[in-house]
Amino acid sequence: MAVESMILVRPEHLNHHGFLYGGKLLEWLDEHSYIGAMAHLKPEASLVTKGIDRVEFRHQVRDGSLLKVRAQLVHVGHTSLTTYTSFERTRDPVKIFRALVTFVSLDKQGQPTPIAPFLLRPFRPQSAEERRYWAEVEAARSRRSAAGKPEVKKKKKTTMKKDTP
Ligand SMILES: CC(C)(COP(=O)(O)OP(=O)(O)OC[C@H]1O[C@@H](n2cnc3c(N)ncnc32)[C@H](O)[C@@H]1OP(=O)(O)O)[C@@H](O)C(=O)NCCC(=O)NCCS
Predict the structure, then answer these.
(1) What is the per-residue pLDDT across 74-106, written as a single tens digit (0 to 9) for each?
(2) Residues pairing with 132 in the sheet
(3) What's the gap in Å between 43 CA and the centre of ligand 1?
(4) Does an H or E element contain 80, and which?
(5) Spatial separation of the C-alpha atoms in residues 165 and 158, rounded to whole Å
(6) What domains lie within the chain, and their CATH numbers?
(7) Measured between alpha carbons, how far is 130 from 124 in angstroms, rounded to an integer?
């Protein structure tokens, strides 16, 4: 099940060039992906955005444009789930943006917790398209585990150089 909605681009959404401001599009991406993800979960689930696979603004979008947003669940992991979210300018029509957006399920202490107990029903990719996105997410997960978790760098202690007499 995908969640679809429409957005009207208004003057307050534009940048100084007169095109849709990218930050606004990212806000809509986060919000609509969250709605798409929550549509598959019990309301008590608590999600935070963990990652967006790619940010590429492909086309300019002008005032008055209508955008169709579609957020589709494509992957469920242990604590995470991912939507494929796309924005289409309806007039042409042309896809102006797409991303795989991953959310992590948190417990009351703000730590990752298994997503399975919150799912309304088990998720399995059905269509060829869903299987393709599932594979895309799995490939990204393999790349991350091969790279290892980034270490938090220890803050280098700076020492004042003593003046030599
Ligand atoms: C969410 C958070 C608690 C996760 O902590 P963490 O130590 O990175 O957790 P893990 O390494 O165990 O990863 C948790 C899940 O995220 C996935 N993940 C990790 N890095 C990822 C990335 N870059 N992109 C997509 N998924 C990612 C992991 O594969 C794992 O999924 P799985 O359990 O289904 O296998 C922590 O990163 C956090 O609090 N981030 C800030 C979230 C936030 O404030 N979001 C709003 C930003 S505006």
Answers:
(1) 999 999 999 999 999 999 999 999 999 999 999
(2) none
(3) 20
(4) strand 80-89
(5) 21
(6) 2-144 (3.10.129.10)
(7) 9
